[in-house]
Amino acid sequence: MPSSRKLDPTIIVIFGGGGDLTRRKLIPALHNLMLDNLLPQRCAIIGIGRRSMDDDTFRNHLKSGLEQFSRRGGSTEQPWDDFGSRISYVSEDVTSKESGAALTRRLNEIDSDWGVRANRIFYLAIPPSMMEPAAAMLQRMGVCRDCKRDRLVVEKPFGRDIASARTLNQLLSGMFVESQIYRIDHFLGKETVQNILAFRFANSLFEPVWNRRYIDHVQITVAETVGVENRANFFEQSGALRDMIQNHLLQILCLVAMEPPISFDADEVRNKKVDVLRAIRPILADDVHKSAVRGQYARGFVEGQAVAGYREESGVSPHSCTETYVALKLLIDNWRWQGVPFYLRTGKRLPAKVSEVSIIFRSPPHQLFPSAAVDNWQPNRIVIKIQPEEGINTRIQVKQPGTRLLLGEADMRFRYGEAFKAAAPEAYETLLLDAIRGDATLFMRADQVECAWNVVSPILAAWEAVPPADFPDYPAGSWGPEAADRMIARGGHNWLQPGMKR
Ligand SMILES: NC(=O)C1=CN([C@@H]2O[C@H](COP(=O)(O)OP(=O)(O)OC[C@H]3O[C@@H](n4cnc5c(N)ncnc54)[C@H](OP(=O)(O)O)[C@@H]3O)[C@@H](O)[C@H]2O)C=CC1
Ligand SMILES: O=C1O[C@H](COP(=O)(O)O)[C@@H](O)[C@H](O)[C@H]1O
């Protein structure tokens, strides 16, 4: 890995510089990279937006966000000035035919100050409808497939269905080569999500049992306590299937289910992930009700606080049919996973913010312990804790202390915080640094995004055709609609409540 201080001079242009994502995630991430000496020595940040703002106003807006959102808080380790002096703002409306001129001038000024043509990263943190005009603006500026030192980072959502994702891919691939395009899914930057690959492929203990012969089923839970917050405009158009399943949960599933790659070459890893998506058994229109459950929260209590129902949230229609909860059963038609159900669920206003992957193993082939000894018996289980706890639990059966042979459960626990002293980087730190270095392994390739849309398309179609009869159907603060419990029970399983014993 090259020393980051020796990385090529880089200019990061953030379209949507005045937006929420930039203030909450991108600037704190870049600031932390600077504090860790990981930014290129010559690195400038330019924010783009329609509003007119001078550089100081823009810097102050970002600085207050840093104090609020950075994992280090408003760090005093190094004065803000160091970082702030790298930041400037250029007002451009990407929909205007004249846009691009002011940004080009700013880029040229920086290149001329540095005496070098810097690498350029164009980060599109703008609403989906602005992606196309922003790409056209870049084209007008002369950014193109021949400019190999220029990269494009594209925020989610990548399209709102398979057709719009294809259109956006076609548009971008007409202008850039695939290796210049970094489609972001911030879950892939999470330390614990990347650790799924390390756990599986850097150890020889687990891979031999990582298949249908030993694994009974897999559960992936991404639960949130937050409601729709101030994003009703976006969420009303999206829903949990598009917002969470199509990207984050399917990407986690790929990491759990993929075949071992030959190397960590970006395309090698992405090929193996695409194989998983392509092997997911399509859900037939008539079977959607058996394999997919949607839900919407009613008012209730989360962490002791009374909270409004989704339909009462500001900006949400009182008759909204948007799902805030999804549970799915997916099957993967390949040798490794034939017959092993993968249950996925995600929801807003659930009792805890917790993301976990549970691998539940089959029972031993022969039960040699007398039934009295196995009163409490549960199959082995590996729980990959993504957040807020970060680590892995391996649940085993052990002999309880005492003169009788009684079995009990115990956990072998790994926790990042206990095993390592260093603080983990935020997902956006990892991903921004990878984009600066030119490593696309943790980013989505065009075919990955399209395959993931193909998985959810039949469900989207079925749900759009028939509005839900019973929304809202789960109280805020519960684990979701009862229909999700019935769905998993039909497969002979039950949801493991994250953080709880069973
Ligand atoms: N916020 C979050 O936590 C997350 C956001 N995302 C994605 O990131 C993207 C941005 O989200 P977010 O920051 O929340 O959105 P905001 O609405 O807060 O910001 C949107 C930004 O886009 C700019 N913009 C809009 N239209 C134009 C235009 N015609 N020309 C130039 N700039 C324009 C706005 O500038 P101005 O106001 O000056 O017009 C503003 O800075 C979205 O795609 C979203 O889905 C993804 C994951 C999480
Ligand atoms: O992409 C999104 O993710 C967040 C959850 O991310 P996390 O890192 O806080 O777990 C989710 O709240 C949001 O709706 C979605 O757009």
Strand content: 15-25%
Annotation, overall tally of beta strands: 18
Computed Rg: 24 Å
Number of helical stretches of at least 4 residues:
14
Q: Strand order across the biggest sheet?
A: 8-12-13-7-14-15-16-17
CATH class categorisation of the largest domain: Alpha Beta
Ligand set: NADPH dihydro-nicotinamide-adenine-dinucleotide phosphate, the ligand O=C1O[C@H](COP(=O)(O)O)[C@@H](O)[C@H](O)[C@H]1O
What's the CATH architecture name of the largest domain?
2-Layer Sandwich
Q: How does this structure look, described?
A:
By secondary structure, the chain is of the alpha/beta class. It has two domains: 4-155, NAD(P)-binding Rossmann-like Domain (Rossmann fold); 188-490, Dihydrodipicolinate Reductase, domain 2, CATH 3.30.360.10. The protein contains 14 helices and 18 strands. The protein has an eight-stranded mixed sheet with strand order 8-12-13-7-14-15-16-17, sandwiched between helices. Helix 1 packs across helix 12, helix 6 (162-175) packs antiparallel against helix 13 (446-465) and helix 9 (266-279) runs parallel beside helix 13 (446-465). The mean pLDDT is 93.
